[in-house]
Amino acid sequence: MEQKYNVSSNPHVRDAMTTSRIMQLVVIALLPATLFGIWNFGFRALLVVAVTVLSSVMFEWIYDKLMHKPNTITDFSAVVTGLLLALNMPPQIPLWMPVLGSAFAIIVVKQLFGGLGQNFMNPALAGRCFLMISFAGKMTDFAVSDGFRGAVDTVTGATPLAALKVQGFIEGTSVPVKNLFFGNIQGTIGETSALAILIGAVILLAFKVIDLKIPLTYIGSFTVFVIIYMLCTGMGFNGNYLLSHLFGGGLMLGAWFMATDYVTTPITFKGQLVYGCCLGVVTAVFRLFGGSAEGVSYAIIFCNLLVPLIEKATYPVAFGKGGKKS
Amino acid sequence: MGKLTFKGGVHPYEGKELSKNRQIEKYLPKGEMVYPLSQHIGAPSAACVNKGDRVLVGQKIAEANGFVSVPLHASVSGVVKGIEKRLTATGGMADSIIIENDQQYEEVEFHGADLSALSREDIISRIREGGVVGMGGAGFPTHVKLSPKEPDKIEYVLVNGAECEPYLTSDYRRMLEEPEKVVAGLEVILKLFDHAKGYICIEDNKPDCIEKMKKLIKDHPRMEVKELMTKYPQGGERTLIYAATGREINSSMLPADAGCVVDNIDTVVAVYKAVILGRPVMSRIVTVTGDAIAEPRNFTVLTGTNMEELIDAAGGLKNNTAKVISGGPMMGFAMYDLHVPCVKTTSAFLCLEHDAVSESKKHATACINCGRCVSICPGRVLPARLATLAERGDMAGFEKMNGMECCECGCCSYICPAKRPLTQSIKSMRKMVLASRKKK
Predict the structure, then answer these.
(1) Where are the domains of chain B?
(2) What is the distance in angstroms between the Cα of A205 and the nearest Cα belonging to chain B?
């Protein structure tokens, strides 16, 4: 019999959203933070971003080639990984380091575990932490640089968060919260401007790439923990201290762009709430009691490891299974 | 009044504007008529005519074969040409009675009845003799549905006018043009269940129907119109019961377990015709639509009519037609050949210039765990996980993770950005589980 028409099992219609479109939207949403970083830190930052993104895509392509797999760079996931890694780099980093980080992120964390959708922790953060552990000095060197807009206001060489950890918030000496929010401070390329990150977050929310569950539970539980800490340590409630914690480090970038990474978050509704709360608490513990000023990256990859457990514990009750009859 | 609905669901392109303003037209067939013996769930009917017999409109041509089965009636007058295997819309070959239409439309005598004079048993037997089945698509014999173990425990009779399937407008036109028949049918069903209220459930994208129905039933104390949020699969049995009554049933329960009976608009009209007029199911409304159809239409079609004729009557297909579907885009069957008959459950022929399924394949990737399928699943299961278990062939794991609670609505396949065939994988696995349960 002559086959005239396409035949397939129902349903016969599909939503317009595709994997590569989601990834492209994430890239677009990261652009405000990226552009701000380049404006803040200058040409050097642009170079770091370009090298990191290109090397990530290149490693993805090479791996596919060597393993005789279909080319997956068109799904844009390597671009997202590369860009996120770049935004987590200090602007003055030697260029071979982000390349090494990309290789670790793409080849070891992503591809060796099965490629897109199979990595058990966020590749960009794993890449960052790998560099952090191996080259702590270079990764935390925030030397004063010239941005396109002139010199950066900063406590020499240290991030506001590091200063906050040592001396607390001192009126007049510490970086004003306003600067932390707008981002003309020191830090990694993409994390400094809470405003630019929030603009990106609005883009993600508007296109329904993410929802509020994880970011809000993350930031919310972090805030609660810090308030409790302030009250218990006799510091008393200090709004500036709290806001410095919220806007001063990698929390905003982490909460909106990295904690919401699909692959490494629970798929269940309740699981995402639990995951967000875990992130907030772990981040606060790392920051307040840990050795380093930052805690977001480690908190996220630590909680990534909890995901299978959280998902198992929050398996939903099927429709009609909740009542007395079963 | 707040809009009633359920958790989850999707909003595919509706496409109803193509045919919704087209009045129902009666289509009289030209060619031979084909009546598959199995137009319902249950045992196929047994033919009771022979080659060469002359039959009249409304004459029984096949007997019910067991309790879960219904008889079949001729929709034209003419001579039986034979009983042979013919292609059906679902893609298989099925035993069918072939009748040469003599265009006389000579009718048998139909015996109408007065509802007040009928007992419960009379009504059920008239529904059964009328060959009434679920005309929304499932084709479950209606007399079985209306004979629950404890009829007194039925509290709600839900008339399903949601018509949540995109493109379909047959129920819409029916409610707009012949709402009194729907009400009359509901009256008959309510007579079976003394303690039940009748809810006519309509999605809010049909405000004209809602208004019309409300006006019509305002003097019926036992009837109410329920406005539902427009969302697919609002008209699914479980989601409809939940939206209208707040009760949940799972895969191992029947609507009667929640005190409900659910019937589609066209089914209720068929009940009215069978019980009050004594006329069996011989026709139904079919929407012929889609961007590949020159002039989309709503037809009253005699069962057995060849689909190709209908498509021609709607102006024919455009040259670049990619896909032809019997039913709607979410639950319908794709067909490779148009030479199939309309049956009792044929709600629409949808002809599309673009096949979204084959076009989506170039965007296919691995699952990115985005959770869209989970957030829209009306069965509240994890489609992404179930599909993986199904692909792996892990039957035990599939059942443990509530795989059997899937209602196969297709939302997950629709929404998946990685374009995974989630529904399809889950569906095959459910079939395997059901088959293995039968063996035990």
Answers:
(1) 115-277, 360-439
(2) 14
What would the pLDDT profile of A128-164 be if each residue is shown by its tens digit? 999 999 988 888 777 655 555 544 444 445 677 877 8
pLDDT at B273 over 50: yes
pLDDT at B1 (0 to 100):
44
Which DSSP string corresponds to B369-436?
Answer: ---HHHHH-TT-S-HHHHHHHHHHT-HHHHHHTTGGG-----HHHHH-TT---HHHHHHHHHHHHHHH
- Which residues have CB under 8 Å from A219's CB, separation 6+? A246, A251, A255, A280
Backbone angles phi, psi at A39, to 5 degrees: -65, -40
| pLDDT (0 to 100) of residue A143 | 60
Average pLDDT of the residues in A59-63: 96
B375 near A CB under 8 A: yes
Q: What is the CATH number of domain B115-277?
A: 3.40.50.11540
Residues of B in contact with A72 (CB under 8 A): 365
How far is Cα B427 from Cα B353, in angstroms, rounded to an integer? Answer: 27
Question: How far, in Å, CA of A225 to CA of A37, rounded?
Answer: 29
CB contact under 8 A, A319 and B250: yes
CA nearest to B414 within chain A: A14
Task: State ipTM.
Answer: 0.89
Are the Cβ atoms of A321 and B371 closer than 8 angstroms? no
Cβ atoms < 10 Å from Cβ of B426: 25
Residue with tokens 């040259």: B319
**Pure H helices in A110-237:** 123-134, 136-139, 160-167, 177-182, 194-206, 213-232
| Dihedral of the alpha carbons of A256, A257, A262, A264, in degrees to the nearest 10 | -100
Residues B29-81: pLDDT tens digits? 988 999 999 999 989 999 999 999 999 999 999 999 889 999 999 999 999 99
Contact A6 B322 (CB under 8 A): yes
Amino acid occupying residue B42: G
* CB–CB contact A268 B374 (8 Å): yes
Which stretches within B218-278 are classed as H helix? 237-245, 265-272
Mutate to test the interface with A, among B370, B416, B430 (most CBs of A within 10 A): B370
CB distance B201 to A282 below 8 Å:
no
Q: B415 touching A, CB under 8 A?
A: yes
CA distance A20 to A26: 10
Q: Is the pLDDT of residue A257 over 90?
A: yes
| Count of positions (residues) in chain A | 326
